[in-house]
Amino acid sequence: MKKLISTLLVLLFSQEFLSDSYEDEVRKRLGLLKNKPMVTMASDSDASESVAAGRTGEAVYNLGCAACHTAGLAGAPMLANQAQWEGRLEKGLETLTNNAYNGYNAMPAKGLCMDCSLEEIERSVQYMLDSLTVN
Ligand code: HEC
Fold it and tell me: How far does residue 10's CA lie from ligand 1's centre (Å)?
């Protein structure tokens, strides 16, 4: 019985040892990867364009919203078009942001910017509002 227990203990310790060295190996490999450049989006490569947590409103707009909101596709209110934003402005930034984030009629959720955070969507909505003369 004693022998069995010590055999088990030895097995346990060697397992522990094995997983330790495995972790070291993983750490080593991760260390090797650390110096690789992070993957960035083409429009995001200019450091001055990105803000602390995420992209600027302009960057997100150009990436995801411009496709519809510059040309007014499918009835999307156009950038800098005061008349088309009338009736929407009074909803306020928070509601407009939620609608853009969750989707609203023909407006797809997140404006198809699937990796956009709520904050990034808010910035891009703010960017659109800033394009209007009165807001
Ligand atoms: C596929 C086209 C499309 C894309 C891409 C798109 N939108 Fe829209 N958006 C629309 C359409 C269409 C409407 C009008 C919906 C309506 O009023 O029925 C709209 C409306 C809106 C509104 C007004 C919502 C309201 O409550 O009146 C906001 C704000 C908005 N979009 C923000 C964005 C933002 C921000 C992005 C990018 C992150 C974006 N959209 C990308 C089509 C699009």
Answer: 64
Tens digits of per-residue pLDDT, 22-81? 555 545 554 444 444 444 444 444 444 456 679 999 999 999 999 999 999 999 999 999
Query: 36 in the Ramachandran plot: left (φ > 0), alpha (ψ -120 to 50) or beta?
Result: beta
79 lines ligand 1 (CB under 6 A): no
Residue whose C-alpha is closest to residue 65's, from 133, 23, 123, 17? 123
In angstroms, the CA 7 to CA 62 distance is: 65
Residue 68 near ligand 1, beta carbon < 6 Å: yes
Q: Which amino acid is at 50?
A: S
Does the pLDDT value for residue 15 go beyond 60? no
